[in-house]
């Protein structure tokens, strides 16, 4: 009856899934009954809105991808960084294998770049000392996949 | 955490949906078929991303409904091994922890993948649960349910459907994620 043509047609960051749900009409209460979104999809939306993805924009992710090129990171590592938004070397440690060997001093630069390019999630905003200045626009409406959804 | 999967499926469209535009009727049927269900080796289906092509529409003899061959993409939740995920504590007992993501609950951290060394103490508030405490450099770090816990995915398994189940056991979990807390930067967010 059904066959899978391509089990993996591209990886999605948390932000892309959140953007997709938002473009279909998901939002915080009280429009839940009207939007054409199932209850199970709302649970995913609730989880993503509390994660680091809720403040991200398409532009900030593209900027991060550009700047990450010189560090020679694996695709899975970049995906983890976008989803978790590490703010200190100890958070980078489980994400990048053998981080000291491969990058050494570059870890500090990478973290500084991540904290300046990506806005902090709501839970981290209270504990961070530096205030990340800048406009925060939330992208709306686009359903096209970004550079991450490339074919393997 | 999320992937797109391209799937082709032969769909029978019940006649009571004939008044809807074709796209909507097919999307509704696909959603009721796939949403919130686990497909073996592909993961948990979160949402229908888009419909690529709709083919067919033939009515087979003896049937009142038309059959379509639809090609579409689904957003699947399937974490890869080594991914770092933040989740909330759901239960903790002598075998380890159970974490929940809201839309997915079957995440287990077995005892041997907890940070080393640690021990458990019976929870004073809740009799059936225990609190796990990490002993690090003579300091105690308890894993309580207050903040989110970061873990690394060790494996994702899809146990086969059992034919019979004893009555009192947990409902069958078609997709189980094993996680590990045994690394720098993992565990409750407040530890680091």
UniProtKB/TrEMBL annotation, chain A:
<dbReference type="InterPro" id="IPR005574">
    <property type="entry name" value="Rpb4/RPC9"/>
</dbReference>
<keyword id="KW-0240">DNA-directed RNA polymerase</keyword>
<keyword id="KW-0539">Nucleus</keyword>
<dbReference type="InterPro" id="IPR006590">
    <property type="entry name" value="RNA_pol_Rpb4/RPC9_core"/>
</dbReference>
<comment type="similarity">
    <text>Belongs to the eukaryotic RPC9 RNA polymerase subunit family.</text>
</comment>
<dbReference type="InterPro" id="IPR038846">
    <property type="entry name" value="RPC9"/>
</dbReference>
<dbReference type="GO" id="GO:0000166">
    <property type="term" value="F:nucleotide binding"/>
</dbReference>
<dbReference type="InterPro" id="IPR010997">
    <property type="entry name" value="HRDC-like_sf"/>
</dbReference>
<dbReference type="GO" id="GO:0006384">
    <property type="term" value="P:transcription initiation at RNA polymerase III promoter"/>
</dbReference>
<dbReference type="InterPro" id="IPR038324">
    <property type="entry name" value="Rpb4/RPC9_sf"/>
</dbReference>
<feature type="domain" description="RNA polymerase Rpb4/RPC9 core">
    <location>
        <begin position="4"/>
        <end position="121"/>
    </location>
</feature>
<keyword id="KW-0804">Transcription</keyword>
<protein>
    <recommendedName>
        <fullName>DNA-directed RNA polymerase III subunit RPC9</fullName>
    </recommendedName>
</protein>
<dbReference type="Pfam" id="PF03874">
    <property type="entry name" value="RNA_pol_Rpb4"/>
</dbReference>
<dbReference type="GO" id="GO:0005666">
    <property type="term" value="C:RNA polymerase III complex"/>
</dbReference>
Automatic annotation (TrEMBL), chain B:
<comment type="function">
    <text>DNA-dependent RNA polymerase which catalyzes the transcription of DNA into RNA using the four ribonucleoside triphosphates as substrates.</text>
</comment>
<keyword id="KW-0539">Nucleus</keyword>
<dbReference type="InterPro" id="IPR036898">
    <property type="entry name" value="RNA_pol_Rpb7-like_N_sf"/>
</dbReference>
<dbReference type="InterPro" id="IPR013238">
    <property type="entry name" value="RNA_pol_III_Rbc25"/>
</dbReference>
<feature type="domain" description="RNA polymerase Rpb7-like N-terminal">
    <location>
        <begin position="8"/>
        <end position="64"/>
    </location>
</feature>
<dbReference type="Pfam" id="PF08292">
    <property type="entry name" value="RNA_pol_Rbc25"/>
</dbReference>
<protein>
    <recommendedName>
        <fullName>DNA-directed RNA polymerase subunit</fullName>
    </recommendedName>
</protein>
<dbReference type="InterPro" id="IPR005576">
    <property type="entry name" value="Rpb7-like_N"/>
</dbReference>
<keyword id="KW-0804">Transcription</keyword>
<dbReference type="GO" id="GO:0005666">
    <property type="term" value="C:RNA polymerase III complex"/>
</dbReference>
<feature type="domain" description="RNA polymerase III subunit Rpc25">
    <location>
        <begin position="83"/>
        <end position="192"/>
    </location>
</feature>
<dbReference type="Pfam" id="PF03876">
    <property type="entry name" value="SHS2_Rpb7-N"/>
</dbReference>
<dbReference type="InterPro" id="IPR012340">
    <property type="entry name" value="NA-bd_OB-fold"/>
</dbReference>
<dbReference type="GO" id="GO:0006384">
    <property type="term" value="P:transcription initiation at RNA polymerase III promoter"/>
</dbReference>
<comment type="similarity">
    <text>Belongs to the eukaryotic RPB7/RPC8 RNA polymerase subunit family.</text>
</comment>
<dbReference type="InterPro" id="IPR045113">
    <property type="entry name" value="Rpb7-like"/>
</dbReference>
<keyword id="KW-0240">DNA-directed RNA polymerase</keyword>
